[in-house]
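Box S1 | Example of a co-folding query
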Amino acid sequence: MHETKPTVYLIARPSVDVDGIRAYLTAVGGTSWLQRRLHDAAHEEAAVPDTDEDAALLHTHEDAALLHTHEDAAVLDPTLPAPDDQRPTPLGRAGHQATDQAAAPPDATQPRAPREGQTAHRAPQAGGQSDAQLLIEFAGRVCYRSWEPGLNPNVTRVRTDQREYFENLLRSAHGSVLEHASYSFALHDVSRAFTHELVRHRAGSAFSQESLRYVRLTDIGFRLPPALQGLRQRALSIVEQLEEFQVEAAGALGIEGPSVPFHVKKEVTSALRRLAPIGLSTDIVWTANVRTLRHVIEMRTAEGAEEELRLVFDEIAKIMVDEAPSLFQDFARQHNGAWVPKHSKV
Ligand SMILES: Cc1cc2nc3c(=O)[nH]c(=O)nc-3n(C[C@H](O)[C@H](O)[C@H](O)COP(=O)(O)OP(=O)(O)OC[C@H]3O[C@@H](n4cnc5c(N)ncnc54)[C@H](O)[C@@H]3O)c2cc1C
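Box S1 (continued) | Returned holo structure for flavin-adenine dinucleotide
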């Protein structure tokens, strides 16, 4: 056996097709909204370029070129800052880089160094202007044609600031819009106890879990929860005995040879898992939309939630605040580790 620690890998995030959105808005009206968002993204990216290469890309990027001058953008939204006004985003990439840099200067071309229980992920492509946020805002504005005033006679004013737009959306519990954007996580070395609780979150989730009907338990991974540290040697020795039994039983039941039919191996392996600890480390891929993520983060970091779930969801919460700061703007981490939103269950 070997001791493990859960690790969270963010493996997929939403990606929008800007050309598709532009084509739609050209047909129905509202391109100024897209121009504003692309301008915001370019402005934030220019303020904190990841690498020289990124910065150069930005200036030649087709979308940045759409905005011929900053003045063009200012006409669309007089509240836009001047080009040299490098206002920091509240929770965007700039803030995180500053924090990371204080600890150790990161190489922006490489994934970040992992925190305990979390493996590196790249922040959204343009500060607060993540594709997830663009997608959700786009979907939300479809409802009232509120990309700009005048498209809908009932809408005479629109919120131009994305963060304010989402604040209003969360306050009014317009949560279905959050379902358009999904994130996928590979959760490595979490316990079977963990996965059993995770899969209860059916709404807005997809799961793919390591099969213990097929995977032989010849080297059991196990994390000793803090509450059992006082019984460390005894607990680990029980896990070792269970592992020895798995190996011995596989030999005694004759499933080692290459000539043994696969269905026999499967049946025995499946039966043997009944004699494995529920704390054994395993892997699961979880995809969840933003509405689900908000709900599950709140539930599974709450004080009454299980310790390992709190540990893993603390990492997921940190990732999501980094990924989509405006969609998680109302979450605050309490002193006890609970992530509490202002707007629960939107
Ligand atoms: C601290 C804690 C202790 C727990 N203890 C136990 C226990 O002892 N035994 C046990 O069996 N479970 C237990 N659970 C699991 C719990 O009962 C839920 O099954 C789990 O948390 C999934 O949450 P959810 O019901 O919000 O579902 P999700 O799938 O996350 O759904 C999100 C929301 O969507 C809505 N929704 C989803 N599906 C439906 C539906 N079919 N019909 C109507 N509305 C729906 C609900 O509003 C729901 O809250 C515990 C959970 C926690 C956090």
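Residues 98 and 105 are 9 Å apart (CA to CA). The pocket of flavin-adenine dinucleotide is lined by residues 200-203, 295-296, 299, 304-305 (CB under 6 Å).
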